[in-house]
Amino acid sequence: MHDTIHPVPADWSQSARVDAAAYEAMYRRSVEDPNGFWAEQAERLDWIKPFTKVKNTSFAPGAVSVKWFEDGVLNASANCLDRHLATRGDKVAIIWEGDDPSESRSITYRELHAEVNRFANVLKKLGVAKGDRVTIYLPMIPEAAMAMLACARIGAIHSIVFGGFSPDSLAGRIGDCHSKVVITADEGLRGGKKVPLKHNTDTALTKTIGDEKVLVIRRTGSEVAMHAGRDYWYHEIAATVSDVCEPEPMNAEDPLFILYTSGSTGRPKGVLHTTGGYLLHAALTHEIVFDIREDDVFWCTADVGWVTGHSYIVYGPLANGTTVVMFEGIPNYPTNARFWQVVDKHKVTIFHTAPTAIRALMQAGDEPVKSSSRASLRLLGSVGEPINPEAWEWYYRVVGENRCPIVDTWWQTETGGVLITPLPGATPLKPGSASWPFFGVQPAIVDADGKIIEGACEGNLVILDSWPGQMRTVYGDHDRFEQTYFSTYKNMYFTGDGCRRDADGYYWITGRVDDVINVSGHRMGTAEVESALVSHTKVSEAAVVGYPHDIKGQGIYAYVTLMHGVSPSEDLRKELKNWVRAEIGPIATPDLLQFAPGLPKTRSGKIMRRILRKIAEDEFGALGDISTLSDPAVVDDLIANRQNRK
Ligand code: WT7
Fold it and tell me: 541 C-alpha vs ligand 1 centroid, how far in Å?
């Protein structure tokens, strides 16, 4: 156990928005009087019609329902744009940094407002109306944020699909919510490589109903096929519409967006977030966790294809009138100093990234970091997966020069915003611990029987009551919502994470306890990778598990049983890895693939993943009881041919 403690620096406890005493008092109030606390906090938003009800939520079996501010009316885009015009019209909203270091662009709040209004009118011209779904499949260009806010402006529900996903994955997500329009670009640009987004969209649309329209943004200028009557250039329609579009009055519980995420079973789920509670939670956590000031330049390196980009590049920061950096590229292009050069170039004050990036840059040594000044930095953030104490200390010492607190923020696509986190002016930091619950969040740890355990302990992490940013349902499948999150433990939200609480009450997330792997901070369901593998004609059966990976946190380890008569070979191994890559996307590519003549199964035919995990970890000395296997001999073969030899 790592028990280094970095006390709250004196200047931080004096100047921060929330110090230790304020945290105590506000936290207590938030859980003892949630209606009073959240009603006050909700004043930070502009309401078209004020709410009279605050919290109306139930985790009861068969009756799970989450509503906040249910009779209030507001518009998210007006909250992110219009209300800033009087005081911040000429303030920069988005600093866009291109993949190529010579490309960048600043957009003021006034300009962003005009562009979003125009974009909203383009969508209207394509027939998009309140409640319609719009899929966004874009690179990290300002138009991605504009597209989101344009949807929000007219009450359309956006569903962003990360640009790294395959045509098949895109098709599944377009189809599940039956999007009316897909917004894409000719191509994306990442690390100097072009990503054929329009081409992928064309392929995806051969697998959907086929009544979708496509709105194409010009990014690289490469020639792409345009299908008359289906595909439209954004710039052509934009030239014909005005830049005035009144924001649609939305009920607080009207959907704002859908975001697909992987679970332990089946296809990705459409996590649905609504307008009022989500926006409040994103804005409040952004302001308090990152101690946001008017002159901050906030940079979160996530992609808007993930929830982190939704909440901490777009909705949270813009609702707070903050200047954000939006980065198109990757950490190691053109060199390993890129992040720090961008920090210096734009005088970034708060830098928020993922442990996988920190570990990769740490491996590249201190030199690229030290080649920059980083004098503008005052606070660092980490998100997406547990950060190992070694990476934490390097981030603290080398990147932050022992000057910047680190907020390790734990949350999920489902939670809308941060739930467990240090506050920089309140929380003594323990490297590797997400530390304490945010306001209104009641975490608990349960044992194997679902009994809440107290004090220092380890078990599964649940949340006992609702918070405003909580997902409302799985799009089109409320049963699945209940089943996934509320059936394991009654009357509690189950996070899917394991967790330890130490004697000081700090929470330490230990990782997923379900069949979800966290690869470089990206969630991947083992079932999805398995189903991609078995869709290959040479594969009869597949089982996929995670294993510890130095950079990615977890790597993907696939066990594959081939069809009768097919022989294993290095070429086939490559072919199968590429197959998964093409089926789902590069992030799903198995790191290791083992040909297994048989998989360890119980007599009832259930695959014993515990054993597969142990072998993948190269820990086969501790397999435990294998006597219930129908054929214990398969284990010897699996061990003999294991792929991860330490
Ligand atoms: C899963 C959620 C949070 C938005 C990005 C990922 C893991 C996330 C942390 C952290 C330890 C973390 C959990 C969680 N996770 N942040 N600070 N410490 N684990 O969102 O794709 O929905 O994944 O990421 O396992 O359940 P997501």
Answer: 30
Cα gap 160→306, rounded to integer Å: 8
Which residue from 385, 409, 438, 484 has its CB within 8 A of the most atoms of ligand 1, so it is best to mutate? 385
For ligand 1, pick from 518, 528, 552 the residue to mutate: most ligand atoms within 8 Å of CB.
518
3-state secondary structure 247-266: CCCEECCCEEEEEEECCCCC
- 3-state SS string for 312-376: HHHHHHHHCCCEEEEECCCCCCCCCCHHHHHHHHHCCCEEEECHHHHHHHHHCCCHHHHCCCCCC
Average pLDDT over residues 438-449: 97
Strand positions, DSSP E, 487-645: 493-501, 507-512, 516-519, 522-525, 539-549, 553-562, 592-595
Rounded distance between C-alpha atoms, residue 162 and residue 374, angstroms = 30
How far is the centre of ligand 1, averaged over its atoms, from the C-alpha of 630 (Å)? 36
Which contacts of 545-550 are long-range, i.e. CB under 8 A and separated by 24 or more positions? 545/517, 545/609, 545/612, 545/613, 545/616, 546/512, 546/517, 546/518, 546/519, 546/613, 546/616, 547/592, 547/613, 547/616, 547/617, 547/644, 548/617, 549/519, 549/591, 550/359, 550/363
pLDDT value of residue 623: 83
Mean pLDDT of the chain: 97
Q: Kindly report the protein residue whose alpha carbon is nearest to atom 11 of ligand 1.
A: 386
Per cent of the chain over pLDDT 70 is: 100
Cα-to-centroid distance, 511 and ligand 1 (Å): 8
Which residue's CA lies nearest to atom 27 of ligand 1? Answer: 412
Report the distance separating Cα 645 and Cα 68, nearest Å: 51
Measure 523 CA to ligand 1 centroid, in angstroms: 8
Q: In ligand 1, which atom is closest to the CA atom of 414?
A: 22
384 CA to centre of ligand 1 in angstroms: 4
* Residues having CB within 6 Å of any atom of ligand 1: 261, 306-308, 383-386, 408-413, 434, 495-497, 509, 511-512, 518, 521, 523
Q: Which DSSP string corresponds to 129-194?
A: -TT-EEEEE--SSHHHHHHHHHHHHHT-EEEE--TTS-HHHHHHHHHHHT-SEEEEES-EEETTEE
> Ligand 1: distance of its center to the CA of 445 in Å?
17
pLDDT mean over 414-438 = 98
Q: Which atom of ligand 1 is nearest to the CA of 516?
A: 25
415: left (phi over 0), alpha (psi -120 to 50) or beta: alpha
Nearest CA to ligand 1 atom 14: 412
C-alpha 526/C-alpha 546 separation (Å) is: 8
- CA gap 591, 419 in Å, rounded: 31
Please state the ipTM of this predicted complex: 0.99
pLDDT for the residue numbered 319? 99
Q: Kind and range of the H or E element at 111?
A: helix 109-125
Edge-to-edge strand ranges of the sheet holding 507-512: 452-453, 443-446, 457-463, 493-501, 507-512
Check whether 621 has a pLDDT greater than 90. no
Place of tokens 């009144």: 246
